[in-house]
């Protein structure tokens, strides 16, 4: 089974202090039999364009194994945002855009975030939104408003509410067809609830931290899903969503 990890970071997080290198990512892929990773910068104090460039180099070094995702601060000017996003999506061929309401210190409802959704529409890529920790901006329900305004854009609720707000993530998925759930850090029984509520075709796997890769894999394996269902979550859903 060609497992795709949809949530991997390169670099150092300003929140957790955790640092992940190229070697860490590649080693874990071998160890846990991960075929492909979607890699983005951390919410970080490092210069984001240089992290994007590093990720681009990885995508060239490991084609079809490493894919990039852009995480540009929506507080920069519209021109600067669009310049950076265009480099990432057009020149580098990145597969998604990240909005980190905690890392970027912004509500998904802010008019400043419209340029994220517009870019996602223009480049036909999904928007990944961090949810759970870092409230009020990271509440899953806040994503419903842009999801309704941009019905042709797909939104991924990263961490699907981070355990505490998981029911709210489920409500968001139930009310918006264009919302996908990625349940890293959520308890196993809530993952079953998500599958039941949203349908298995709207669930993807992400690890967030290298040390969390085996944990997230084990969670899905504990749910008594068939091999076909596991392959759908681990491979087919992300492949379709990110157009890999
Ligand atoms: Zn993350």
Could you say what the CATH topology is called? TIM Barrel
Mean pLDDT: 97
Q: Provide the gyration radius in Å.
A: 16 Å
The rough form would be described as: globular
Biggest beta sheet summary: 4 strands, mixed
The top-level CATH class is: Alpha Beta
Compounds present? zinc ion
- Number of helices in the DSSP assignment: 9
Share of helical residues: 40-55%
Class from secondary-structure proportions: alpha/beta
Question: What do we call the CATH homologous superfamily?
Answer: Metal-dependent hydrolases
| CA distance, first residue to last residue | 16 Å
The helix-strand sequence is EEHEHEHEHEHEHEHHH
In the CATH hierarchy, the architecture is Alpha-Beta Barrel
Q: What is the total number of structural domains? A: 1
Question: Uncertain regions: pLDDT < 50 for 5+ in a row?
Answer: none
Number of strand elements: 8
Quaternary state of the chains: single chain
| Largest sheet, spatial ordering of strands | 2-1-3-4
Beta fraction: 15-25%
Domain Amidohydrolase-related: 59-244
Pfam families: Amidohydro_2
InterPro entries: ACMSD, Amidohydro-rel, Metal_Hydrolase
Protein name: Amidohydrolase-related domain-containing protein
Explain this structure:
This protein is an alpha/beta fold. Helix content is 41%, strand content 16%. The strands form two sheets. A four-stranded mixed beta sheet has the order 2-1-3-4. Strands 5-6-7-8 form a four-stranded parallel beta sheet. α6 (166-175) packs parallel to α7. The longest helix has 15 residues, at 227-241. The protein is globular. 47% of the residues are buried. It binds zinc ion. Zinc ion binds at residues 7, 9, 208. InterPro entries: ACMSD, Amidohydro-rel, Metal_Hydrolase. One of its GO terms (molecular function) is carboxy-lyase activity.
């Amino acid at each position: 089974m060609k497992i795709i990890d949809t949530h991997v970071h390169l670099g150092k997080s300003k929140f957790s202090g955790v640092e992940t290198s190229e070697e860490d990512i590649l080693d874990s892929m071998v160890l846990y039999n991960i075929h492909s990773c979607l890699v983005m910068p951390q919410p970080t104090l490092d210069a984001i364009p240089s992290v994007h460039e590093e990720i681009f180099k990885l995508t060239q070094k490991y084609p079809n194994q490493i894919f990039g995702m852009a995480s540009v601060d929506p507080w920069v000017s519209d021109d600067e945002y669009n310049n950076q996003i265009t480099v990432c999506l057009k020149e580098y061929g990145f597969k998604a855009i990240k909005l980190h309401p905690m890392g970027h210190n912004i509500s998904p409802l802010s008019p400043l975030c419209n340029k994220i959704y517009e870019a996602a529409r223009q480049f036909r890529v999904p928007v990944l939104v961090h949810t759970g920790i870092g409230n009020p901006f990271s509440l899953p329900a806040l994503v419903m408003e842009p999801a309704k305004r941009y019905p042709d854009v797909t939104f991924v609720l990263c961490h699907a509410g981070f355990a505490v707000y998981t029911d709210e993530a489920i409500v968001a998925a139930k009310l918006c067809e264009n919302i996908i759930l990625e349940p890293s850090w959520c308890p196993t029984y809530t993952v079953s609830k998500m599958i039941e509520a949203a349908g298995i075709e709207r669930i993807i796997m992400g690890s967030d931290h290298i040390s969390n890769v085996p944990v997230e894999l084990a969670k899905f394996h504990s749910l008594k899903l068939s091999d076909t269902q596991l392959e759908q979550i681990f491979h087919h859903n992300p492949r379709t969503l990110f157009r890999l």
